[in-house]
Structures are given as structure tokens and as C-alpha cells.
Amino acid sequence: MHGHAKLRVGFLACLGALMGSASTCYGQGEAKGSDRVLLVGDYTGRKVVIHSDGRGILWEHEAPGVYDVCMRPNGNVIFSTYPAVLEVTPDLGAKKGGKVVWRYACGSAGGPYQGKTEVHGCHLLPSGNVVISEAGSMRLVEVSPSGEIVGTIPLPPSKTGDVHSQLSLVRSTESAPPLFLVAYMGDGEVKVLDRTGRVVKTFPVGEGRTGSGTAYVGQALAAGHVLIGCADANCVVEFDGDGKEVWGLVADDVPAVDLSWTASVYRLPNGNTLVCNWARGKSSAKAFEVTPAKEVVWQLDGTYFKGISCLQVLDEHLRPPTP
User: Fold this and answer.
1) How far apart are CA 23 and CA 14, in angstroms?
2) Rounded to two decimals, what is the model's pTM?
3) Is position 181 within any domain?
4) N or C: which end of the chain has fewer CB within 10 A?
5) For the chain, where are the alpha helices, taking DSSP H only?
6) Do the bridges between strand 24-26 and strand 13-15 make them parallel or antiparallel, or are there none, so unpaired?
7) Residue 299 pairs with which residues in a beta bridge?
8) What radius of gyration, in Å, describes the C-alpha atoms of the chain?
9) Helix-, strand-, coil-residue percentages of the chain, each rounded to 5
10) pLDDT of 106-129, one tens digit each?
């Protein structure tokens, strides 16, 4: 299904474990001594962390069940747990904790649904509002910077009865108004929807990929392409706007990182892809960067992190890079 490109790891440098930090390794495509800064959601470690390759752990906050994380331009951190989404102003001086700006609790947008709910995705929109994916009630909830609920979008039902597996993350396009890419994890597909909840397009992960959930996130790329982290299917796949698979990554492509349970994925400006490798043990890469030719050029091991579900690249000032 995919060409299995030969892995050429050829590491130039492995940075030793710093006090309270994880070990990172660089390959041929990455500058030695680069100080990559990440906002990390460590689901298994039950925390959100700002981590620097060169400076170690700069901040952390308890976050049991963290599925998604993002940062505002002002440095506030937004993250999801099963029962809630929170926005926090980090206490960088103390390197931990901070002030809660707002908290959205499951089901608090009201409506007729009275059953179990879970919130997994939280995505920052250009307007400054945050869109939240809520399973059970099957809707998107939009929250203002002050925490006010400003709207909801009904979602098509999932074929999955287990609420936990119905939905995963939500992302948006850069168009105005935006379209929303919603990962139906248990159904194994990413649906693209407008603001009314109408399905514009569906990207099935496809036959031959098995697991209890095979769609964790869909990122909108240029020219209508979509990049999907395929969860239990243990792979990454990119589709063009017509639904044709144009690139993919499977475990045999990257044996050095022991690929398993691919959570969030991110296409970088340099064309490489960041992959959250959630399920593997301490010795394996918890996240890694891979080129289009499937060469691993950077990885983050389990010295400090236990199971990374999501991350965001920051600049040296601990802020999201400006476009």
C-alpha cells in the first residue's frame, strides 16, 4: 500500500538528558544544536508541558486525560480533558500551574441530549474563539475568549455506540468562513463540514487499516489535501482533494521509532511531518519528525514523557510562530 523507503537515520548528535527534560536526537536533516520548543500534551503522564530541547522543562500543568492542546498568541494555553476544556495563563516564573481563565464543562452548552458526553478536541480559530468537539451530544461548541458559549454546530451521528470512540479532534481550514475537519475515530474517517453541520466531503482512512479507532486528527493542507493520524491503524496518510492517497507512513518505513498508535500529526513549513507516537514504551520515540522521503531527522524519547497525544511548535519566546 505504501512504498517502504529505506530508513537512513544517521544521527549526528544525541543530546544527553537534562535535569527534568527529555532526550532528543537529531538526524541528517536537522541542524545540530537546534532548540525546538514544543507545547506538549502528555496523555499518559497526565500533564501539559512546555519543553525545550536545549532548556528542558519550562512549564507544566496537571492535565489528566489530555487529548488536545493549543496556545493563543498571548501565551495562554488551552487544553482538553474528557470532562472539560480549560484556558490557563501559565505561571512561567514558578514553571508550573497558572490562572484558569475559563472552563467549559461537558454538556454545559445545553440541549436535549442528557446522556454521557466527552470533550476531546479544542482548536483555536482565527477569530480568537475556540471550537470544541463533544462526543455523545455529537456537536461542535464554539467558545469566546472570555469563556462564553457563542454557538453550537450539530454533527452527523456516528456509527459507533461507544461515546469515547465517537469523536476525536477538530481542525479548521483557513477559508472564511472556515470548514471544520472532524475526526470520527471509531468510524475511521474525517468529515469536512460547514457551519451548518452539512458534510462537504468525507475522507475514509480506508480498507486494510484496522483498529478500534483509525482516525485521530485531520489537518487541512494546501490544495485541498488532508493529513490524517490513523490511531490504532498505526500509520499516517495524506489524501488529495479527490480522496486519492498521495503519501503515507507505516511502521516498516521507520523501524527505528517503533511506530504505534499515531495520534496528532502536523505538516511543518519545511514539508516534513511531526508525528505523535502515543503508545510505545519508554525507550521509543514519543514524537518524531520525518521527511517526505521517510527519513527520521528528529525524535523525542520517553525520558520525561510517557505518551504524547498532541503538541504544538512554539518559537524561542514560548509563543506560536507567526505565519
Assistant:
1) 7
2) 0.89
3) yes
4) C
5) 163-166
6) antiparallel
7) 25, 288
8) 19
9) 5, 45, 55
10) 988 888 888 999 999 999 999 999
